[in-house]
Amino acid sequence: MSIQTRLIDYEDGGTVLEGQLAWDDAIDGPRPGVMVCHAWAGRSDFENDKAVELAKLGYTGFALDLYGKGVLGNSTDENAALMQPFLDDRSMLQKRLLVSLDTMREQAEVDQSKVAAIGFCFGGLCVLDLARSGADIDGVVSFHGLFGAPGNTTGNTIKARVLALHGWDDPMAPPDAVIALGEELTSLGADWQLHGYGNTMHAFTNPEANDPDFGTVYSESADRRSWTSMRNFLGELFGK
Q1: What is the spatial distance between Cα 171 and Cα 79, in angstroms, rounded to a whole number?
Q2: Contact 117, 101 (CB under 8 A)
Q3: Residue 214 sits in which domain range?
Q4: Which of 26, 67, 143, 192 is the most exposed place for a label (fewest CB within 10 A)?
Q5: Using an 8 Å Cβ cutoff, are 101 and 137 in contact?
Q6: Is 179 exposed, middle or buried (0-12, 13-18, 19+ CB in 10 A)?
Q7: Residue 61: in which H helix or E strand, if any?
Q8: What is the pLDDT of residue 77?
């Protein structure tokens, strides 16, 4: 096994974006591609490392970029300012996600007929929006994502299988939001499942999360269990 990475420039609406691809060059030919949607700070080492971990599992990982080449928030205020325009205009968000998905599909290391996406925090909302849009994608996995419906996908049919991995004590997605998500996904015809982790808050996969007043706390057990659930889900999608 030899994991390789390369940076890929791409563009949406005049904004130059930069994603990172990761693959195992010991595997011949294209393999399923799994896009990694970043949290509110932008594409960071966290997402790049997830793409590498996916490559170790035999997939091609692609850590996308929504904000622009080299753009990365360094504080709560900066992160919120970067994310908010996409929460205000979910059509813009969905378009950029689809451009990113197409960019991943174009890579020689990716089997264009086998693609999925995972996302963390804001990225968890992103993969749900990708599914809600009716995108041609096999499955999505939301890790401690935000659940609010975008308002522009009512009546769509979700083609992707959906897995939501959720901390039950997440103040950013309380139980009523969980119920609303289930009702929404059912109304859109999705094959969906949700795993709730007790005594677990937002950002449970991030070892640097340690702010219970803000609602972000790392959980080693939820981190491990959620990654195992993702592996099982991807294995069901792609027979690996």
Answers
A1: 18
A2: yes
A3: 3-238
A4: 26
A5: yes
A6: exposed
A7: strand 60-63
A8: 97
Alpha-carbon distance of 140 to 61, in angstroms, equals 13
127 in Cβ contact with 105 (< 8 Å): no
The answer to whether 214 touches 233, Cβ cutoff 8 Å, is no
Give residues with Cβ within 8 angstroms of 153, minimum separation 6.
129, 132, 133, 134, 188
> Strand pairing partners for 36?
63, 118
Q: Look up the CATH number of the domain holding residue 24.
A: 3.40.50.1820
Residues in the chain: 240
Residue owning tokens 């689809």: 98
Give the chain's domain count: 1
SS3 state at 157: coil
Half-sphere exposure in the Cβ direction for 126 (13 Å, CA): 32
Which pLDDT belongs to residue 223?
Answer: 98
* Rounded-to-integer distance, Cα 100 and Cα 81, Å: 21
From first CA to last CA, the distance across the chain in angstroms is 17
C-alpha span between 94 and 240 (Å, rounded): 29
Block mean pLDDT (10 aa), the chain, length 240: 94 97 96 98 98 98 98 96 98 98 98 98 98 98 98 96 98 97 97 98 97 97 98 94
| d(C-alpha 41, C-alpha 20), whole Å | 16
What predicted TM-score, i.e. pTM, was given to this entire model?
0.97
Q: What are 176's two structure tokens?
A: 């009523």
